Amino acid sequence: NAGVMQNPRHLVRRRGQEARLRCSPVKGHSHVYWYRQLPEEGLKFMVYLQKENIIDESGMPKERFSAEFPKEGPSILRIQQVVRGDSAAYFCASSSRTGSNQPQHFGDGTRLSIL
Amino acid sequence: DAKTTQPTSMDCAEGRAANLPCNHSTISGNEYVYWYRQIHSQGPQYIIHGLKNNETNEMASLIITEDRKSSTLILPHATLRDTAVYYCIVRADNTNAGKSTFGDGTTLTVKP
Asked: A43 forms bridges with which residues in the sheet?
């Protein structure tokens, strides 16, 4: 019974390249959340998606960042033209339903390093 | 979501109970209290959550005061592996309730 799977665990990119982070939610979960954790800081919400729909993207930077959760396949967080400040751990969480009585279960994250 | 206040750090002796407090004085009636922990380099791990009543599971107990303005997470017999950052979060029951707002948490150090 696999939990949230994220890959890659570590990703190194040079400035200006694109980074693609993948998240496979817990089997049966249709709600996915992305968070970013800068070094020595707490997690910051980025975006909440339900299958094929973006529900809340209030934490997403306005440029270069996008997220999708297609009908089939994992959720993807895409960062275009990466900069040094994008270096962080990116965590994905999933839940079976919406509502505040539904725990979010987290993956172990992707550590993105920008050279 | 309501803001939470937690002590920055706490120590606990191995085998003793660890009691982690959290203040959430502005909590609304429909907001749940959640506890997560993050062990270095891992993702946050869900521990427990509750609305009004005290809750207990295989990991911990959650005690919520009657006025719901504060809560305490109890690890009954702390082990060295319980050393982690513990986050107390409140989440509103909005129609599209999604995000969890993480603060700085409490760094719990369990000592031999």
From this structure: A37
